[in-house]
């Protein structure tokens, strides 16, 4: 199992709507993370990208 997941400069758009724009986050094993924001701001899309269910338009996911 990996110890760290890095999402670097993630961008995702749906049509002309920029859902995620230049987001970076580092997730460590055995740490609790909470992402908060209003409905439609891209929280679920970010985790879909990190989990591999969705592809970002640009940026990198690095699993160490």
Describe this structure in words.
The N and C termini lie close together (9 Å). Helices cover 14% and strands 45% of the residues. The protein has one helix spanning 43-51, and strands at 4-14, 17-28, 58-63. It is built from 1 helix and 3 strands; from the N terminus they run E-E-H-E. It is mainly β and 64 residues long. It has a 3-stranded antiparallel β-sheet, covered by helices on one side. The model has no long low-confidence stretch (mean pLDDT 93).
Q: Reading side by side through the largest sheet, how are the strands ordered?
A: 2-1-3
Biggest β-sheet strands, sense, barrel: 3 strands, antiparallel
Structural class: mainly beta
The percent of residues in helical segments reads: 10-25%
H and E string? EEHE
Could you tell me how far the N terminus lies from the C terminus, measured between alpha carbons in angstroms?
9 Å
Beta-strand segment tally: 3
What amount of the residues lies in strands? over 45%
Quaternary structure state of the chains depicted: single chain
Q: Which ranges are low-confidence, i.e. pLDDT below 50, for 5 or more consecutive residues?
A: none
Summed up, the helix count is 1
Give the overall shape.
globular
What is the averaged pLDDT score?
A: 93
Q: What is the CA-atom radius of gyration, in angstroms? A: 12 Å
């Amino acid at each position: 199992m990996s110890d760290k997941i890095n999402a670097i400069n993630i961008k995702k758009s749906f049509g002309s709507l920029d859902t995620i724009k230049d987001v970076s986050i580092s997730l460590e094993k055995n740490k609790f993370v909470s992402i908060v924001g209003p409905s439609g701001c891209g929280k679920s899309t970010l985790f879909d990208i990190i989990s591999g269910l969705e592809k970002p338009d640009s940026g990198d996911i690095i699993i160490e």
